[in-house]
Amino acid sequence: MPIAIVLALAASLGIHAATLFGTDVELFGGATDEPVTLHAELQPPPAAKAPADSKPESKPPVRPRPKAKPAPLVRAKPSPTAPTTPVEPEVPVPVDESTAEPATADAAKPPPEPVKPLLPAHGVIRFIICMGTSGFQIGRAEHRWEFTEDGHYRLYGVTETSGLAALFKTVRFENESRGRLVAGGLQPEHYLSRKNGKDANENADFDWSSPQVLLSRDGQVRPILPGTQDILSLNYHLAYVRQPESGATLGVVTGKKYERYALDSLGEEEIDTPAGRFRTLHLRAMTDSVTEIWLALDHHRLPVKIRFTDKKGDVFEQIATELGTP
Q: Region entry Disordered: which residue ranges (predicted)?
């Protein structure tokens, strides 16, 4: 029986480690064409500016500025042909001015202002992990988050065995998500994972200029769609999803792969937890397994309960025991 408990905990660790929600639908191929088209459209504007800027070559016969610099060049080479020399100094002058203009325009662009977070600037949620619906505890978990004034965020999660399960085998899984807060919600940049203090090799680095993600597990680079989350940031990005009561579809990087998660809304429910009674929105994702999440509507849509049902029908619940928010 104790061995079964440890194996059950390993499955419950999947809530944070691998497949919180999951479908096998991967949208590759088409997404890689978009950046190519954008790069092609960005090239014509500089080419169009060159002839427009070259017009001043015929306009300024009077060269008050160039005289100070090109004067030595004119006298050093062809002094008898001084009347024809205006062509030489005028060539570099418009080139210098044209290159200076775009730089000035770029410098004039104000940096984007940080987006104000919907969640508290920092906080913590603690959970118990139970096997089945009888409340038999096999583990515990904790999430911490922080939003900085410069528009960045950091999420940290830890899941570990507790009670009887910890007597037979200690398992501790940590994961971390770092990134920026943008208009559409969380935009992860780095996802890290550790098991029992060692690198779990289920990390991901996001490149939003492409957009694509590098998975450390197999070293592959995968194209991703805008709004994609990692498995930890997903729980807190839901606070920024518009009308989640109508359902949503999101890209998710688990550390092993990139998937699309379809979330169905089961409506509002009031639930009792050790952390209190909450009015929640019940979401569900169904694949070969089922994952359900309850978001506290009066507490920034924070996750207060997660239920995972595996392929065999075994149930594991993660229930909030404490919401430490300002």
A: 38-113
